Task: structure prediction
Amino acid sequence: MAVPTTTGPPHSPAAPPAPAAPGPAPGRRPDAASMAQRIRQDIIRMAGGPEGAHAGGSLSCADLMAVLHAELLRPGDAFVLSKGHAAPALYSALTQLGCFPADELDGYAQPGSRLFGHPRHDLPGVEFATGSLGHGLGLSVGLALAEQLRGGDRCVYTVLGDGELQEGSVWEATLLAGHRRLPGLVAAVDRNGLQITGGTEDCVALEPLDAKFAAFGWQARTVDGHDLPALREALRPSADGPVAVIARTVKGRGVPFLEQRVAGHYAKLKPALVQRALAALARPAGGAS
Amino acid sequence: MSAAPAATAEEAASKAAEEVTLGPDPRAAYREALLELAAADPRVICLDSDTGGLEDTFAKRFPGQYVNIGIAEANLMTVAAGLASRGFIPYVHTMATFATMRAAEFLKLDVVGNRLPVRVIATHGGLSAAHFGTTHFALEDLAVARALADLTVVVPGDGRHIAAATRQLHELPGPAYLRLGRSATPVPPDGGAAAPAGGGDAAPGFELGRARVLREGTDATVVATGALPLLFALEAAEELAGDGIAVQVLELHTLHPLDRDGLLAGCRGRAGVVTVEEHRPQGGMGDAVAEVVAADLAVPMRRLAVRGSPGARVAGQCDALAAHGVSTAAVVDAARDLLARTYDQHERPARHGAAATRTR
Result:
């Protein structure tokens, strides 16, 4: 079917729209390791602001976000942060790609800022507002379906929380993606094992997660979510169908007093703790996972 | 030998008795329009949620523009948003109650929140599937759709306008909600205002966003939304005319954006306004009209809508509506009540037409 890739007025959206990740010149992208480090520092600074931040689940996906934004997303590819509460990680990555100035992070969730606790669709580099769990995968499936219908090869990446998988709409989208064998779709699950009240397996168990995605017709890959080269490999899209990456992560990763702590889900850090956290992040990572 | 003439006579007799011309089947009329749009515009994608009726019509002609996403209404909205953001114009199909209740947040955030050009084709509106029972009543959908604020909301009241409504909605840059009934309804007796019966293309009476005047009258105004309420309004106007009461009948097919000027012009100076719709009173068309009327006119209103809980026993659409306050008789009573109220407070004018200037 011939769908025009450029369409005219009056009723067309600006198709094809700007890529979600605005595809900065490759030379401008930091490497994944330094992007991840900077993401973690920025998360801590935002958590030190007057409103605090969703620190734990932002820190756990920092490496995932860094590999995606520093290395994998090409111009035209799409990224959807399904776990919108990890906005601090996204905001930091976007500033590092030049989408908006880094000093805006200082105003995170404060009056007058455009950086809400969950991202809006009109922020440069963000295509869809997320934060209500269970929407991002369906959106990504729609984007990937558009590529499939048009015969394009642009990829769609999304990062989901693991607790989010308790939302039924996730599985509607999973079922459809598997049925359509959508190429170029990669759904990464930030599998930190914790949700607000405790462990996911104590709340409503998700395991065996890889088997669930496989049963829905996806390629399922389990990976250490803090091993950058392994993530890079696991997040490769497939032309044969959708890929689920179960990224085993540590909630609060990199900040000892937040790691694997349920209370670290949402943190409002006093200045002294911000300093402690930044100092911990400054130490070379020593296989804490 | 004698069977044929007898049958013919019987047919003629029953026809004369009914004097009813049915309009087109709403879903078929819509599908015809969609097929034309799909042929002309490759951005059209027919997203089905396994509703039935599209696979052997649309999918056969345009297999590359048809995707059945399965029985999953939340995903229907969300996938449509993704497609629309990549330049497609998705037509999503489900029943009105599922589109606005089950999938409400997905419609709100993903489609409307991003102002994406998704067309929500919401069938089985109101009590058009009355015999299916409570789960299939759609009596809150317009309140939800209106509350989303950036969604264009249309309820064609004349089956012959469905094609025109579909075509006009196609041109919008943002999202739209088209509520359809389940079965053909009688053609409203409005003479030249509507397209000739069976005329797919010509529908001079439908103009998106504009209230339609079906009958002029200066004593009271009846505003109707939906096929049966519109018929009730027109029948009531006819009955009231027998008493010398001249009723203005407006069809308000576009609930958002509201034709404020058309409403004010149609209600100004009358002794009262009756609204009639196939929806709960809360948040429906009557509320929308009240917002406009209350701001600028001192005119009393009666809002006829489905009150109480239909569904304890199976009833047809008309009977169910009548049992819950929506009927020709209810419109007549409401109009009389409003006029009586006015005349109690003011000297009855010599001519009804003069009432217009005295009803404050």
